[in-house]
Every structure is written in structure tokens, then in C-alpha cells.
Specification:
Layout (H helix, E strand, L loop, with lengths): L2 H36 L5 E5 L2 E4 H15 L8 H21 L6 H12 L5 H10 L4 H22 L7 H10 L5 E2 L2 E10 L6 H19 L4 H8 L11 E6 L5 H8 L10 E2 L3 E11 L2 E2 L2 H29 L2 E4 L3
Antiparallel strand pairs: 1-2, 1-9, 3-8, 4-5, 4-7, 6-7
Helix pairs in contact: 2-3, 3-6, 3-11, 7-11
Length: 330
Amino acid sequence: MSRIAITWISIGIAATTGIICGEFAASSVVLHDKLGTVCGRGHLLALVRDRGIYQADLDRTLAEFHYVAGTDHGQERNLQRQSAVTDLIANAAARAHGRSEKILRTEMEHELSLLRSQFRDDKTWRLALNASDLSESSLWRMLRNDFGSRQWISKRILPELDVTEGECRRFYGSHLENFFVPERLRVSHLFLAAPPETAPEIVEAKHAAIEALSVQLAGGEDFATLAAQNSEDEATKLRGGDLDYFSAARMPPDFVAAALKLRPGEISRPIRTRLGFHILKLIDVQAARQKTFDEARNDIAIELTNQKRAAAIQKLMVDLNSEAGYLRPL
């Protein structure tokens, strides 16, 4: 047989194979779509590595989104629907890649144990599984898929998350305002609550009580002891009323103004804010300053790593969506 004839036969075989594969792919889409409608999952929306994504999957994803957001389901725009389909495709592709990952059995058992520990006994645990149409074996498979996809994603994006010293220094130099520390005060207070809705007779009683405590302090009694015995700020009373360091933006203006009139160690007369009555003791004042690069280095590295992670995941989403062999127009 001549070389030309062999060449044409090879071309013919390749073309026939291509036609058969194309017809098979088309028939696979049709088959998945028919199965979806027969099984009550609706029309096929996408096909990813032979895994179908159906209208029911989209509806469930949108319902979960609206439940978390507290919005009405069924009023989403097409952009939301497209975004949900994009997420479903990426998740399906990642799970497919994750099947080849080696997962330690001990990790799986630990995760299953954490889930199980949230229920008081085996009966409650099994009732919860049944209510979710799950068995321990199906839950195990779900966890395996989740671990596999997460591990594959981590390996895929990890090389893109390295942050260099130079990147950190450039970020510091161009974002100096992010590392400015305002003036901070450290104050202890003895507090009696009297918010705006408090009845007048109770306000009057609290006013009398705070004045009496002020007299005791003027007589030399220990501030921390009186705070522990009388303060109504449960979060600080057992540590002498210590509020730790705070900036002016964190406290009522009249509280800050009164504190700034004191010298370290000095105790104020009773003051009233919108929260109630206070007696203040100034412990320390830290002047406003600029953080050094060394102080800010760890925070900058975390910020840049998070930025790189977001960019890497966005790129990965695009790559994973390109693996959809079929995508139905919405």
C-alpha cells in the first residue's frame, strides 16, 4: 500500500474518531439532561468531568445564600445566578482533582470525631444523620471529598503566596497612614450603670452611691478594692476596673475629656456619661506615634499574603471553570 494511501486512511480514521467522540459528548449531555429531569433535579446546567450540575443544585445554592444573607429567595438577578453556577463548576472541578490526593485516615477520624462530639450521645447523633439523609459512610465520603479538594487547592496556590522582604518594605512606605498609632490612654473606672431609659429615682440613687464612693476614695480607701465590691462593669471589676489601653475613638467623648484632665495615678470626681456614672483613675498615657517597619512587619506580611491568596483563588476559579465540558446559557 502506498504511503499516500496510508496517510489518507489515517486521516479518515482520525476524522471518524473525532466525529464519534463529538457525538458521544453530545449524547452524554443529552443523557445527563434527561436523567436530571427524570430524577427531579431539573435541566443540566453544566458538565464537569462527567459530573452534572443541575437546576436543583443552583436552587439549593441560591437558597443557602439567601438564608445566610436574610434576603428573599427568587429575587436574585442573573449575575447572582451566574456567579452561583461559576462556584458550583469550580467546586466540582476541584473535587475531581482532589480525588487523587492522599488523605491521612487520622485526619478524617479527627474531623468526624469533632462533628460527633457536638451531640450528646449516639442516638442523637444518628437521628441528626437520618434527618439529613446521611449515613456515617456517606458522611465519610463527603469529608473525604472536602479534604481532598482543600488539599489540592492549597498545593495549587501555595507557591503563589510567598511574600518577600522587599514587598513588605514597599507596602510599608506607601501605606504609612495604616501604621500610625493614635494617643492611647489606660484608665481604671468604678462604674454604676444609668442609661437613658433608667427611672429617675434609680438615677438619683446611683448618683448618691457614686458620690459616697468618691468620699471613701478621698479618705484613702483602695480604688481596686472598691471597684471589685461596687462596680457594675462585670468585665473589669475583678481587675480593679482596668480598661486597658484605648484610643479616644473607643470611648464616649466626655469620658475621654475627663480622663485627659488627670495625671497618672490621679482619681477623678464622679462624672456622668450616656452609660451611667464613673469614677476614673488614670494609669498611663501613650503618645501618638508611627509604628516602625519591624513592628509592622508581621501585619504587613499577613495583609500581602491575604491579597495574594485572593488573587490566586480568583485565577484558580477561572482555570477550574474552563474545565466545564458543557455550559447551558442561563
